[in-house]
Write a structure and sequence with these properties.
The protein has about 325 residues and is of the alpha/beta class. Helix content is about 50%, strand content about 10%. The protein is built from twelve helices and eight strands. The strands form two sheets. It has a six-stranded mixed beta sheet with strand order 1-4-5-6-8-7. A two-stranded antiparallel sheet has the order 2-3. A hairpin with a 2-residue loop joins strand 4 and strand 5.
Length: about 325
Amino acid sequence: MAKCKRNRNKTKRNFTVKTPTANQNYKDTVFRMLFSDRKNLLSLYNAVNQSDYNNPDDLEIVTLENAIYMGMKNDLAFIMDTNLYLYEHQSTYNPNMPLRDLFYICSEYQKLVDKKSLYSSTLQKIPAPNFIEFYNGSTAAPDCTELRLSSAFEHLSGEPKLELIVTVLNVNVGHNAELMQHCNTLNEYAQYVAKVRHYAADMSLDQAVERAVDECVREGILAEFLTRNRNEVISMSIFEYDKELEEKKLRKAEYEAGFSEGEKHGHAAGFSEGEKHGHEAGFSEGEKYGIELNSIETARRMLQLQEFSLEKIAAITGMPFDEVKKLHANEARSDS
């Protein structure tokens, strides 16, 4: 792994970060709890950045404790060598992460320049942002993809004037072997999640989580962490996994509704009418309907060009990778 030289003449920052009181009504995640430990977080940082820092105190934690999404706290934000890193964990595919991260980074910058004048002739320096999503959902995904804020822009002409790029790393067992090799905590976390999913297929969620925890402790997988935080981990895991299943059911229903309506209206009156109907009829059910129509049609056109990989099509359109594969197979059968 390449080593990152540390700047030992680092200028002292005068950023003021106010940490609001945490709201106990919202849930932590196992990932957040595990990597809130500075030693574990530094190990993860080194693995992602191919660096070899060894002092956890070099990390300046700036996580906003009152940043909430879908009833769960945002994960981790920290400054390292004048760069600001936002680490997020997701167990379901979310194409809106760049927009979420935009809101979050704006809040971070507001805190960092608190009480400083933005009307002065002096340029206010801010740390350069980096956005990483650690994905461990059950839907197939490549080792590394990118989500771009500009993908959400309507009628974009030319280069986007505002961009935010989220690097999505698949941290399921069997993916990103080099990353896992250099961060044993992340590797063991992936093993724990895999065990929960495996046992949940054949038994109640409560039993599956307890069995996974006990088995990991016996096998030395996150043993100290799980032993010390057993009750909290079980509670959080049940909440997380149940939430993941509900989101998957919701998104499956949304996609199927959008796909069937897209087929009907797209073939009957052309794509423009299908898109119009999607925005008019689907918006009342949440942001999903027109977006799904647009994504499907865009994916179809990209498949017809035969210039893009299925992974690239999934990243650009925001469609789940396995749905892109299914659409590719359907298109191939239609052409034969």
